Amino acid sequence: MSPDEFMRQYSDETCELIVRVGWCWAKGRGSFPQVGNLYHAKARFDRALDVQSNQIIGQGMFNWLEWLTPKHLLGHPYGFAFKEDHLYRVLVRPALANAADAGKSSSYYVEKILEADVKEPRLDPYLEFASDFCPEEVERDILVENGVSAGANVHGYFRSVVRYLAIADGKDDQPRTCVGRLWIMEEARGGGMKTQLSELGAYRVVVRERKEDPTSLFLVKVMKKLKDDRFEPFRQEYLKPVVIENSLGTFTLDRRYDWYEGEIDYLGKACSVMLNVEEGSTDASAALAKLEELCADLPAVDHAARAYAADEMLENASDWCEEELTREEFMERMDSPCINIATDGSVGFMFDDGGMFAGHVITVDMAADGTFEGTDIAG
Questions:
Q1: What single string gives the DSSP state of each residue in 21-56?
Q2: Is residue 144 within 8 Å of 203, Cβ to Cβ?
Q3: 176-195 pLDDT per residue, tens
Q4: What is the rounded CA–CA span in Å between residue 246 and residue 291?
Q5: How is the chain split among helix, strand and coil, in percent rounded to 5?
């Protein structure tokens, strides 16, 4: 294809887009193909704003910015120097095929970069997420439960969330119990999150409250770690063991996951059980009542769960095993499960697969009314 033939693929009309670049050329990625004696350079975007119509386009697709250029000896070797996860206002010519293939990936020929590092809330993940929070910045003293874990990478930003256990509105105010979320979002640079908080540490922070939930806070900055003793009673209460003694077994609260852990005798074998509680609560009465209900007729419950899994997964298991299994063989090979009981009374059984699915776990979901509503493999 000659350069003239290549350019005939694009409209003569230009338009302006603000694009979020998801991929572009970088050192080590090799050369672009050539059209005649010119390079056919590309960058990719997954979302854009049509400036004229003010509509979001291309969402969830691989869309292309393309241009022809000689290789440059100085500066960027292929003309336009796009950077991944940055926003650009560009003057482009749409490909003629775009209109015919609506709903599919689109291509645009780049005439000019009009502006780099554009701030557009509908395309910038930071601004988009922050728009859910009030613009006013306030100081709060908080006691965090855990440190900052690795953040999810969201188009050039790390985003993480930390739960806090107590909060004070002012520097001299007494803290009150409040289980909430502290959201942290920062540019993804280096190996991980720059913001670091220690487990059960107290901090003075500048935050913005979520519009619909003032217990959900967006971190603006950490001012300092607090060394006063106002939060010490909350630390001690958090560290205090909470145990339920029951005829079925002993269950100990794990506050990080909002559940009690313990073991019961499951038809002669040990079975791990998680009894979920509402966030920040220690009351497991609903989940414990459901466990007692299951154990009142455990042989029938166990048989029903195995039969349901066999009916749903027998053919799939035979494919994994490369041998024909009977329904009875499938049920027999399922080992004793772990049990996770939610606060609404629904139950998750996690059976060892007995080698039928290469060591994966067979999950069986039971609704609060005792009906089975799904099975899968996991792990």
A1: EEE---TTS-PPPEETTEEEEEEEEEEEEETTTTEE
A2: yes
A3: 999 999 999 988 776 678 89
A4: 11
A5: 15, 40, 40
- pLDDT value at residue 99: 61
Amino acid at residue number 345: G
Phi, psi values for residue 331, rounded to 5°: -65, -40
pLDDT band at 132 (very low <50, low <70, confident <90, very high): very high
Q: Exposed e or buried b for every residue in 195-223, given b needs 16+ CB within 10 A?
A: bebeebbbbbbebbbbeeeeebbbbeebe
Q: What angle do CA 222, 228, 232 make, to 5 degrees?
A: 100
Identify whether the C-beta of residue 84 lies closer than 8 Å to the C-beta of residue 23: yes
Reference 200, options 223, 232, 224; nearest CA is: 232
- Global pTM reads 0.69
Query: Which amino acid is it at 73?
Result: L
What's the start-to-end Cα distance of the chain, in Å?
50
Distance of CA 69 to the CA centre of its chain: 39
Distance CA 247, CA 292 (A): 9
One-letter amino acid of 180: G
- Cβ burial, residue 82 (10 Å; 0-12/13-18/19+): buried
